[in-house]
């Protein structure tokens, strides 16, 4: 059939909300519940990361979502539907599941591994094969090179990519990822994390991700749930809010050293309050720009070109000696920083230049200046914001 040859967009089903209501799991013979009355809403299309000490119940909580473990009591809803009202096997076909080292079947090729769920869903061979190709491309593996290999013929990182491809193959709205990158070296791990984030930009699945590594949680999570024994939720918030205002010493222990630095890593320059500087055009008269600078603390203007890109700096002193338009007077702007960069990167840019502030651009257009005091104010502001939120 020719329609199987069309290169349809790989995954189209967006994430669904997951709701845990009073969920408890008591294993037989256990005195204390492994998961004790957990209430949690995981918003559609977000990555929520469970972090907590070994044995606190992260995996048990996650596996109750796809009913690999049955709750003792409570309710789990996906997209508003009670998971217990569905056939467990059918449910699992619509929830991607990735475990450490990919969890691939060793006796099946890469293609066969990826096609398992589509075939179970009754897709014909051609459609499943097309899907395998799409998924391999999506996770950055050349289908011609990898489809017929066996898992043992792949590196750890490649196995992990195939694990992600397999979980996404049936286009599920929800993905559960249980320490998926725990078994690979730190460099491959960082690559896999970056790939997951760019995939998620495209796919907007609801992803529940378990890790021991708080830095991984900060990098990947739209929100982080910090869990203590019995899956007790000690704090559930965006990474920046947790870093700025940890709920207690237990959370502080997880954050570890350098919380303020980590906060800089998760805060985008475009999201902080930038300094304003007088802006000018080459055609503006020097006298006019001088007047606009007036008695401002920073006696400089920044000159923008026709496309609003910052091109030159000019000081009030230089302007004082000039008549007519400013033209090409002043010093060239040698460093700018993208609004998409994080504040840590902005600090590095500041350290590298001779100036006390650096222009910030969004899609190359000038939006403001970042300086050491902007960064300090931003950190203070984030702290205040999250304190106010936790009080409300
Ligand atoms: N099948 C089981 N039978 C009895 N107890 C179990 C079973 N599986 C897990 N447990 C217990 O339940 C608690 C929670 O286990 P779980 O695996 O969910 O924790 P975790 O936070 O994922 O741990 P880790 O980070 O070490 O993987 C632990 O005390 C564990 O020993």
Automatic annotation (TrEMBL):
The keyword Nucleotide-binding applies. Its EC number is 7.6.2.9. One of its GO terms (biological process) is glycine betaine transport. GO terms for cellular component: membrane. Keywords: ATP-binding, Nucleotide-binding, Repeat, Transport. One of its GO terms (molecular function) is ATP binding. PROSITE patterns: ABC_TRANSPORTER_1 (PS00211), ABC_TRANSPORTER_2 (PS50893). It comes from the Bacteria. Residues 18-255 form the ABC transporter domain. InterPro entries: AAA+_ATPase (IPR003593), ABC_transporter-like_ATP-bd (IPR003439), ABC_transporter-like_CS (IPR017871), CBS_dom (IPR000644), CBS_dom_sf (IPR046342), Gly-betaine_transp_ATP-bd (IPR005892), P-loop_NTPase (IPR027417). Belongs to the ABC transporter superfamily. NCBIfam families: proV. This is ABC-type quaternary amine transporter. It comes from Stackebrandtia nassauensis (strain DSM 44728 / CIP 108903 / NRRL B-16338 / NBRC 102104 / LLR-40K-21). The lineage of its organism: Bacteria, Bacillati, Actinomycetota, Actinomycetes, Glycomycetales.
